[in-house]
Amino acid sequence: MDRRRGFTLIELLVVIAVIALLVGLALPALARAREAGRATVCLSNQRQIGMALAMYASTFKEWIPRESGSSEAGRAVAPMHPGSGYNVAWAFSLRPLLDPLAQWNAPDGGLRDQYARAKYYRDPSRPPDPHNIHYVNNGLTFRYLGPTTPPTCLSQGKPPTPLHRYTRPASAILYLTCFTDDPGGARFGAWYGSNTEATIAIYYDMWNPGNVNRPSSTDPTTSQRTAPERHTKGSNCLWFDGHAATVSRQHVLDVANWDDGDYVR
Predict the structure, then answer these.
(1) What 3-state DSSP class applies to 136?
(2) Dihedrals φ, ψ of 143, to 5°?
(3) How many domains does the chain have?
(4) What average pLDDT does the chain have?
(5) Which range marks the domain in which residue 118 is found?
(6) Residue 182 lies in a domain
(7) How deeply is 58 buried, as exposed, middle or buried, from its count of CB atoms within 10 A (0-12, 13-18, 19+)?
(8) CA angle 173-208-177, nearest 5°?
(9) Would you say 112 and 195 are in contact if contact means Cβ atoms under 8 Å apart?
(10) Which of 101, 168, 215, 255 could form an SS bridge with 261, CB 3.0 to 4.6 Å?
């Protein structure tokens, strides 16, 4: 008779334990690989935005979008939508250079989708939420009082400015980074609603030093808008010269790294 011996219960438990151990070892590596892929997509998006920024500057005689607050006479050279009292924000201004269907001459950008189809503005590492723009730009204004005093970041935004005014090396200035999380959707509820694309884009910038590194503030206009650990231990950033890279948490949170060298008096 062929009397084949089966597995004992102990042997089965050992096999299951070995498989569980191997899975436990593989999952973190798989998670890291998936996050690396998502971070790469985010970097690719930021580089596309950087190319659009360069094309925008070429089109509008070096002027680029900064903070989207109230316009100053003679400063807002960028396209303005009808009846607007604001500088047109970066996301609205650059979209026609990223999407041939988008328009500058209408508040809805010609698409009326609240950026739902703007995949180049989305970071796949961001936890799922209703926001369609996942980046914030540098709209900060600095004042320089002399060689013995470091530049001070003011609580006021910076309107569109020509690139030639930036005296510091372009590679030293951060232009854009990943947008913070919005638990509970408080920001989304206040920013979207029935607003047009031009109005929605207004909110995705930083004009107050607290927008860089003040997580404890209860005021959404002055609290942190950066996500310094979006990608493991750092965040992706775009510089004024158009290159993008992953930088450390400390680099993103240091207000000095957002200083463009064009100071008010």
Answers:
(1) strand
(2) -125, 140
(3) 1
(4) 87
(5) 9-264
(6) yes
(7) exposed
(8) 45
(9) no
(10) 168
Residue 250 carries which side chain, given as an amino acid letter?
A: Q
83: left (phi over 0), alpha (psi -120 to 50) or beta: left
Any domain includes 158: yes
Residue 238 phi/psi, 5-degree rounding, is -110, 135
Tokens of 84: 């607007």
For the stretch 92-111, pLDDT in tens is 999 999 999 998 888 888 99
Q: SS3 for 59?
A: helix
User: Is there a contact between 156 and 206 (Cβ–Cβ < 8 Å)?
Assistant: no
**Amino acid at the residue 78:** A
Q: How far apart are CA 31 and CA 41, in angstroms?
A: 16
Structure tokens at 176: 């854009």
Nearest to 187 by CA among 221, 157, 217, 211: 221
| Tokens 């004042």 belong to residue | 143
